[in-house]
Amino acid sequence: MAELTQPHLSVLIAIITALVVTLGVLVPPARRASRVPLVLLAVLATLAWPNWARIQSRNGIVHGHEQVHFLLGSRYLPELGYHGLYPAIVAARLNKDRNLPRAEIRDTRTFQLHKVSDRLEEAEAAKARFSAERWEAFSADLEVYRRELRAPLERIISDHGMTGSPSWALFALLFTAWPTVSTQSANLLGLIDPALFLILLVSVARAFGARAVAVTAVLAFTPGRVFDFLGGSILRMDWLFFLGMALCALQVRRFRAGGLLLGLAIASKVFCALIPLMLGAHMLRRWVSERAIPLEHRQVIGFAFLGLLGAVAASSLAFGGPGIWVEYIERILLTLHEGYYRAQYGFRDVYIQVAVNGPAALFDPFPGRIHARHADLASFGTGLNLARLALLALLAWVSSRQAPLLAAGLGVLGIYLGLVTNMYYWSLFLVLGLGLASSEQRRHGLALGLLCGLVALLRGLEVTDWESLHARSYLGSWLLLWSVILLAGVELGLSLLAWRRARAI
């Protein structure tokens, strides 16, 4: 029963949070009174996130599928690179599993599936990159995941590979390099991300206060499938931890620490660059108006580059040179050009709908046919990229008119515009929530309530079955695009009003 009701409870918590936050703005005396119910809602959201700890009872909290990718992928990255994990698994298991040659293995250089029996030379080549001692250790680790933790190896080798950056892998080695793989150590490693979230929430409470940390918890723990996909893995949310901690540091005017954390976030996940990009739009507007670069801006920018370049340099030294980054970038570029997924949000799908059906499609959230499912996505490249640049420029203009933390938070919408992201990445909304919570302006308080409502709606689309998941994901993408359009419209209206008042004076 808990597994059936937990997603619906998360939706209900987010809806109530939206109402409480909005009421606190519309009725000022209710703002103080809202703290206690908001904290209670945050506690419920936090407890519901791992389904009340009723998760994968056979293996504790271990997500075997994920840990094979990210523990073995980081621990043996010098030998495996970004394309050797699946061939190495085949080499380790080939003489022990007679059915394995008939299974399918994905070539992570092309994402094409092949019969294992047709890729045996590649398996032998992967094994040859190990020393005898390291191969014995890899084989033993893999056997623990297969036998004791029931990792589905045949399904794993048809997945899309390890996606952590070299900087992520270097950070992960602090946790994955030393313990012998066992049920106990795998369970402990699965607690890293919850521990990071706990540290983040304590930091938000200290920097922003009780109301902000409550809303942050709801925004972090409501988006669909986060724990289902990533819970019990290893260090999958480190980038979100870095981003949240960066905003906490900036809030308390620790600009060097804030910049450093932003750099580390980008080094872990490249798409995090959209966050400081929108913050940079705010900085640029201020530079132009003041004709000077404030010291705090120089500190944030300088230490962001220090964090990014330091992480890249350190990981290059650890993993045999800059070639590991070239391999990773090729891997990520392939992902960006991959085909349609149904459980995703992205401006791309709405753009293709408009390109095929005409401008009227912009006002149709329920199309009978979702053209991105069947389209040759590469054929839309030029127009799509120009539209993305135009919308990102519009978002940058909106960001330039906001306070620094809100400008950074709007980068979350930039990620939606520029990329296609799976729904479990929308814990990112906590960054935008912090930006809104840092402002005392009434309209930003209302926007925070609307954001909680939007997150509730997106989560609701994921747990309902009134339409296909394709249709529900498209509706989510459509709603996010209109959020950007309405946001820009409000800012344009405010700027025109300010201009008219200035002329009247």
Short description:
This protein has about 500 residues and is mainly alpha-helical. The protein contains 26 helices and 4 strands. The chain has helices spanning about 1-25, 30-35, 35-50, 65-75, 75-80, 85-95, 120-130, 130-145, 155, 165-175, 185-190, 190-210, 210-220, 225-230, 240-250, 255-270, 275-290, 295-320, 325-335, 345-355, 380-400, 405-410, 410-420, 430-435, 440-465, 470-505; strands spanning about 105, 110-115, 345, 420.
Key attributes of the depicted protein:
globular; 26 helices; mainly alpha; 505 residues; single chain; two-stranded antiparallel sheet
What does this structure look like?
This protein has 505 residues and is mainly alpha-helical. The protein has 2 domains: 2-53 and 192-504, no CATH class; 64-161 and 180-185, no CATH class. The strands form 2 sheets. It has a two-stranded antiparallel sheet. A hairpin with a 4-residue loop joins strand 1 and strand 2. The mean pLDDT is 90. The chain is globular. The chain is built from 26 helices and 4 strands.
